[in-house]
């Protein structure tokens, strides 16, 4: 239970296999292939539309985890920069006799240069081995998500997923961005129910909504399949902006079971008893 | 600060919103007050069924039918989309014994002028193809409908506002004083002087009643509901088990053949398709104070009972459970009435029928306040009936 993305912040191999599947060694032997590591059932599907070979399927509902058709995938890396969750990688185990490559999204400056030797890190951000930069792709099509291809010993291809940032200042400190961009009225905030920022603003201005639950009652934001997991922060932000409240002063939505969707059959057949408190 | 109004309505659930709407419509200056948000209590934790089929023959059924007949016009009259659909409802009977009880009930309801008819096994399976094969028959009520309950509350409240009513939310009432011929209602934000006060606080109406010395015999009867994902059309309209009647009134000697957890939690199958392509599964009944947490055993029993009637539901996902409190009265009828305190009215205690009875309740209270005759004798829902006992 504790070896999962909710506890660790990164998915386990078991979760990836269950949610997305993982390419077979036969497929790896044929050349580069995309690996999706997206296990959280969020309403998101840019990867599906980005793939020029229609190799990625999310389908309906939009909260499905993506699945790669390994026969159609050419390892072109288009999906790597298209994924807003930075959860897609391309692995090439045929790079050389001893080495394979891992292509990953890298949104930090400075970018490395081909030929650089860098620290190759695991999903957890821990050092695994040294890697050599093969290619850095950062065209307009990448839309500010450069894709770095790095060679590492073949045996680490399933474990290496990024590199250590370069030139981190000694006294580096996280400072939140001060300027937050205003969301246009036509931005979809609740993707499950397709509710826009404009509709949420209307629920605050005209219908007097003051909390996430009150907005939900007025315009259905958060009533869909993901039950507000994705939109509640954005709704909170809009309420903050509209009413000049601090985020901590905006009441969150009531959480209700089940935490994730379960079938009626699973519910009926589950263990007896128990009580869920809000 | 002192405000003044003709009518102060306390509680902005569906009943309070309707009472505010119809009073504003008859020309009164209305102030609608709630301790929290619009529809924050029972009205946002309900389903949207507008039924006559689950009423008792006689007054109960006539009162419900009068209300139901108002929703067609209201859906045009209100600015907010209330998603009113009138597709009828279907009761399912499981065996011959239930069929006989249902047939007698059907006959009595038809005598009250309601469009009900019995259906045999073949007919119900033609009507709803996913019903379990063994189900015995059914009872159709052609006039039943459904709507979006929270939308209805908004429709009434925004409609009242448009006609000059003032809405004061997040403003708990703290006390009520008699003031000459009227009242002074104290609330956190302001005091309101008014000639009439209507207590529409549902489960919490006894608290308001006590402020003027009235004991109101309403208690909370909890119910839980499961929400499905958006999916294909399992059933085209509202379907429920006839056993629902038996659990609602608890009056028949007939015992359903159900599991202990279904029996223990008063679970009876209710299916309601929504306008958003989800469906709701109810129902449960229990007295647990004001607890609105979800009980896993109740959720399991709801799932079990739903699968018994529609086996295809087994593989559909539950995305949410919720729980609310019905304002229960000892005789299952609401209180829509004046009281021994002149000028103080009660519109509460509709148990699970508040959404459906909201229209006629609001209309009747507005008539009483304005001194007009009500559409029929409302003594069965008078407050006085509890004083005689």
Describe the structure.
In chain A, helix 6 (197-205) packs across helix 8. Chain A is an alpha+beta fold and 278 residues long. Chain A is globular and about 65 Å long. Chain A is built from nine helices and 13 strands. Chain B is globular, with a radius of gyration of 21 Å. Helices cover 31% and strands 26% of the residues of chain B. Chain B starts with a strand and ends with a helix. The A-B interface holds A 61, 193, 207-211, 213-214, 217-218, 220, 223-225, 227, 256-258, 261-265, 267-268, 270, 272-278 and B 37-40, 44, 150, 154, 158, 167, 169-170, 226, 228-230, 261, 276, 281, 292-297, 299-300, 303-304, 306-307, 313-322.
Main traits of this protein?
heterodimer; A: alpha+beta; 7-stranded antiparallel beta sheet; 9 helices; 22% helix; globular; B: 389 residues; 8-stranded mixed beta sheet; 19 strands
């Amino acid at each position: 239970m504790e070896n999962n993305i909710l506890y660790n912040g990164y998915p386990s191999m078991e979760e990836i296999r269950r949610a997305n599947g993982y390419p077979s060694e036969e497929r790896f032997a044929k050349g580069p292939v995309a690996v999706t590591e997206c296990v959280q059932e969020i309403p998101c599907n840019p990867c599906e539309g980005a793939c020029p070979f229609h190799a990625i399927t999310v389908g309906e509902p939009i909260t499905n985890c993506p699945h790669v058709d390994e026969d159609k995938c050419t390892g072109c890396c288009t999906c790597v920069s298209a994924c807003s969750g930075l959860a897609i990688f391309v692995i090439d185990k045929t790079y050389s006799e001893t080495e394979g490559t891992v292509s990953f999204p890298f949104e930090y400056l400075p970018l490395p240069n081909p030929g650089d030797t860098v620290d190759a890190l695991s999903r957890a951000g821990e050092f695994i081995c040294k890697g050599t930069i093969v290619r850095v792709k950062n065209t307009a099509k990448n839309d500010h998500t450069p894709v770095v291809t790095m060679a590492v010993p073949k045996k680490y291809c399933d474990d290496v997923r990024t590199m250590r940032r370069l030139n981190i200042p000694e006294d580096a400190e996280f400072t939140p961005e001060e300027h937050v961009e205003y969301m246009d009225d036509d931005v979809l905030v609740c993707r499950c129910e397709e509710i826009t920022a404009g509709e949420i603003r209307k629920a605050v201005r005209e219908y007097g909504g003051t909390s996430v639950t009150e907005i939900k009652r007025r315009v259905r934001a958060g009533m869909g399949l993901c039950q507000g997991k994705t939109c509640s922060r954005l709704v909170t932000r809009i309420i903050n902006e509209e009413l000049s409240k601090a985020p901590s002063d905006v009441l969150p939505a009531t959480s209700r079971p089940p935490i994730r969707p379960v079938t009626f059959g699973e519910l009926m057949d589950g263990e007896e008893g128990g009580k869920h408190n809000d | 600060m002192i405000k003044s109004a003709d009518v102060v309505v306390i509680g902005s659930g569906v009943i309070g919103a309707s009472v505010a709407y119809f009073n504003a419509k008859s020309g009164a200056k209305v102030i609608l007050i709630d301790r929290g948000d619009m529809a924050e209590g029972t009205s946002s934790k309900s389903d949207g069924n507008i039924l006559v089929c689950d009423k008792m023959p006689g007054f109960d059924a006539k009162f419900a039918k009068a209300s139901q007949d108002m929703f067609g016009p209201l859906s045009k009259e209100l600015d907010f989309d209330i998603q009113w659909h009138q597709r009828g409802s279907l009761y399912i009977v499981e065996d011959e014994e239930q069929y006989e009880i249902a047939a007698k009930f059907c006959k009595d309801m038809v005598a009250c002028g309601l469009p009900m008819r019995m259906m045999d096994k073949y007919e119900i399976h033609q009507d709803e193809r996913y019903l379990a094969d063994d189900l015995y028959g059914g009872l159709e009520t052609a006039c039943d409908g459904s709507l979006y309950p929270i939308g209805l509350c908004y429709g009434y409240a925004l409609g009242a506002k448009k006609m000059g009513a003032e809405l004061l939310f997040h403003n708990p009432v703290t006390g009520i004083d008699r003031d000459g011929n009227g009242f002074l209602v104290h609330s956190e934000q302001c005091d309101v002087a008014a000639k009439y006060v209507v207590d529409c606080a549902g489960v919490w109406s006894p608290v308001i009643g006590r402020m003027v010395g009235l004991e109101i015999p309403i208690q909370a009867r909890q119910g839980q509901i499961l929400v499905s994902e958006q999916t294909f059309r399992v059933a085209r309209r509202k379907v429920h088990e006839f056993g629902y009647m038996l659990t609602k009134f608890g009056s028949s000697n007939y015992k359903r053949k159900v599991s202990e957890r279904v029996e223990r939690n008063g679970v009876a199958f209710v299916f309601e398709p929504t306008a958003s392509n989800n469906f709701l599964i109810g129902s449960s009944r229990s007295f647990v104070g004001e607890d609105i947490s979800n009980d896993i055993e109740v959720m399991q029993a709801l799932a079990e009972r739903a699968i018994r009637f529609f086996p295809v539901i087994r593989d559909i996902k539950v995305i949410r459970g919720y729980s609310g409190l019905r304002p229960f009265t000892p005789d299952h009828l609401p209180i829509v009435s004046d009281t021994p305190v002149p000028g103080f009215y009660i519109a509460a205690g509709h148990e699970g029928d508040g959404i459906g009875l909201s229209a006629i309740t609001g209309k009747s209270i507005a008539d009483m306040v304005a001194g007009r005759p009500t559409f029929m004798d409302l003594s069965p829902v008078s407050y006085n009936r509890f004083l005689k006992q």
